[in-house]
Design brief:
Helix 5 (127-136) links the parallel strand 5 (112-123) and strand 6 (143-152). The protein is elongated and about 85 Å long. Strands 1, 2, 3, 4, 5, 6, 7, 8, 9 and 10 form a 10-stranded mixed beta sheet that branches. It has 16 helices and 10 strands. The protein has 435 residues and is of the alpha/beta class. Helix 4 packs parallel to helix 5 (127-136).
Length: 435
Amino acid sequence: MTDSMINHGQVQRFSRAPSLVSPAHAQELIAFASAPARSAEATDATEQTCAAFFGSNEHASGKPFIFAGGIAVIPVYGALLHRDPWCDRWATGYDYISSRVGAALGDDEVKGIIFDVNSYGGHVAGNFELCEMIREARGKKPMAAVVDSRVLSGGYSIASAVGKIYATPSADVGSIGVVMLHMSYEKMMQEWGVKPTFIYSGKHKVDGNPYEDLPEDVRKALQVSVERSYEKFVALVSTNRNMSAEAVRATEARVYDADEALAAGLIDAVMSPRAAYTAFLAEVGTASTQTKEVKKMTTENTEKKAENGAGDEAARLAAARNEGKAEGAQEGAKAAQERISAILSCEEAGKRSKLANHLAFNTQMSVDDAKKTLAASAEDKPETEATPGKGALADAMSGDEGKTAGVDGKDDGEKVSAADRIAAAHAKATGRTKK
């Protein structure tokens, strides 16, 4: 079976049953039908690309998901497919998403989960079940969906299950509806002099076949099926977003821009990708610190009470000390997040996002020194070709690649490590040199 035949079968499923897709993106489905076959190799390449943009070496982590700075990153790209374990620029399988979510929830090193969403929807089959799984995981670890730049139909149902939704200013949001397509070739085949004949048993065996016009009773039956899926979709969004069912229906499957979606209650914030990631890190840091300290305080207080009695003064003093430690840890986490935010949002970082990301997350450099280093560095070179899975969120968290011209004194064709680049830029900015 050829690559195109394999993908064509997945695409055909969108026309045979109710689907959670945005019809405006039908051309992308057509392109997907002729794309290379989905495979472990293609998924691996997509994950490596995504991991690099998040400043992570996916393979070095030894984990079955993208892992960067304590955060598991789960891509949700393109068409969303039932019973599919792969992810590439064209499509993402529900099995792929569920397996990564399960692995991230069971990994103690994972402090939070980001869903990097750029999807126009997918199959009804498997979608609602995946959404239920994700929603049930909300209280276990902080999660957020960062939309860059589409979260439509079946993609939106997944994002709503995650909980918090950040959308980039250019995002498209919504399309909360269900669609089914029937194509009739009856007249065309008549003109060709071709007459198909079905030999079958069971009145409804050939309902919805493409070789004859749709009878009214069959159309009504298919409409009932679509409405049934729509009601489930409405109920899901209503529960996940704490909205009334009437408010969800009132969207009438409209596609909103980011500001409109915020006003309608479909998302929680409109932020640049960099700001969204920083906000999520702050949330994760606070939640992690509070959880650890609460557990520690509870354990120590229980032990003290067991030894000395519930009213013992020593136990009260120990609790007060633990509370002070918790506050100190929270202040430390807050200061770290403020430093990261200051570096990423400074004027010097505007056209040097790759280096800014590296300085913020992979070094302990002060804000002032980071600004000087960035000011002395060359600006990022514009991308000449779109890269699968790449978006503004990915770019905001990309790792350093190549070299910085005019800083390291090397020829343009020679590769220079990120550490050497930073050291050279820092030396030029501050006048300090290695001895």
